Each structure stands twice: as C-alpha cells, then as structure tokens.
Amino acid sequence: MASPSSSSSSMVTERRGIPGAQFVEEVQTYLTQLGLDVNSALAFLQERLQQYKLVEMKLLAQQRDLQAKIPDIEKCLDVVATLQAKKGTGEALVTDFEVSEGIYSRACIEDSDSVCLWLGANVMLEYSCEEATALLQKNLDNAKASLEVLVADLQFLRDQVTITQVTIARVYNWDVHQRRTQQAAAATKDS
Q: Which GO MF terms are attached to this record (predicted)?
C-alpha cells in the first residue's frame, strides 16, 4: 500500500521518531495523489491513529516514571544536605530507615564524610557528600530536562492524533457526500 506522505495540504514534520500527520484540505486531490481508494485511505489513517495511541501510552508511562523519580532525587539531595549540615557539629543524626517493606529500624548517624547511593541494577557506590550532591543534582537536572522534552513530545503527539481524527472524518464525510451525489444522479437519470 502506498504511504500517504505527500499532498497539496500541509507540511508533514517529524519529532523524535513520531511521524507528523498531514491535514487534508482537498480529499479528492489527496486520494488521487496517493492512488488510494477511500477504504484504503481510511484503513491507513486508522492504523496510523492506533500507532499514535500506542506511542502515547509509552510516553505517558515514561512521564509517570520521571514524575516519580524527581521527588526521590530531591529527597536524596535533602538527606545529603542534612548530613552535611550536621557534619562537624558533634550532634548525631537519628533517623528511621526502611529495612524491608513495612519494616523500619532506627539509626544513629555520627559524623560522616561519605554516603552510599543506589545506582540501580543492585549497584551501590560510596561517594563523598560533595560528589553525591553533584551527582544527584546532575541527575535531577537531567530528569527535569527529560520531562520537559517528554511533555513537548506528548503535546506534539496529541496534535497529530487530532489532525488524524479530523482527516478520517473529512475522508469519511467526503465519501458519504460522493455516494449521495451518485445516488441522486442515478435517481434523476432513472426518472
């Protein structure tokens, strides 16, 4: 099947692998240029719409993950800042930490020059408080930047979904109008 990629309508763009939808101003020209009949065009547009919905689900899942990750990083930054503030005061930091799900233990943290950070994949590394702060701040900045890009991608994707839905409606309505015109012409011819 031909790929509806060129038309006299509007410029089709792409954003980070998400193909742009084109708004079809003149349905007859659109179908003629692509060499498609109405049913093939509608099938292609419905398939593209489903692809957009699938991509949207994936992007929304990534957005949820980032939105959960950012507060965790901020919390870690706060903990490291608290440890640094308590350092040198001679005052111990008393805190509760989760040992296992629902099981907590109390700890007394004396002056410490380093912290251990989970990096993922069951990897934990020890960093100085300054290095940990720098790493966490970099991760926080990266997560916020990724979230901004993701939000822009979702907005672009929603625009493409809307354009595709409008195009489907225009092609369908054009087909209904053509059939009615043909039926009316046949009825007047028979009379």
A: tubulin binding
